[in-house]
What we know:
Structural class: alpha+beta
Mean pLDDT: 85
Helix content: 25-40%
Number of helices: 5
Number of strands: 9
Largest sheet: 7 strands, mixed
Shape: globular
Order of helices and strands: EHEEEHEHEHEEEH
Radius of gyration: 15 Å
Low-confidence stretches: 1-12, 17-24
Strand content: 15-25%
Distance between the termini: 32 Å
Amino acid sequence: LTGCTVQEPVPANGPAVLPPVSSTATPAPVDLIALRRSAGIPDCPASTTLPAVKDGLPDVELACLGGGSTMRLGGLRGPMIVNFWAQWCPPCRAEAPDIRAFNTLAKGKVAMVGIDGNDPREDYAVEFASIEGWTYVHLYDPDKKSMAPLGLNSLPHSLFIDANGVIVYHYVGAFGSVEQMQQLAQQYLKVTV
Length: 193
């Protein structure tokens, strides 16, 4: 991923402080939908008509990473982990293999949704998700529409969402292992993975 840089050093497993999005970044002309699909990253499903819930995800609509459709967060129900990340974030890169492995183990038990937040380069983000083998739905939130209502100001950040759509746990920073993710899923989502 040439061109991916961080403006200041951050700890390998701690959250990265969000820099402002550059208004001068210009993505290369790439067919992002085709790139996303060739990587096995699915299109966003049709948005649910379920109402938003108190203490749940904000009722905002985000574009599917790579374009093509949108998805509404407010009606999502779990068990689910929503992982906020960016391609320029070293701790996000560090946790990527563990998230990929957890997603493989959790298929049919815990859904994964990725939100690429505060990221000016959607093309790099699609490429990063592709390289990491993240074959689950990802949304694109360069303006932090979903992050601001939740008070999120660092990456990575993961939310554990229960079957009622309530955020039951915030995990700040990079996951340290697949086993840690399994333990958190058991503890907060009551799901054995």
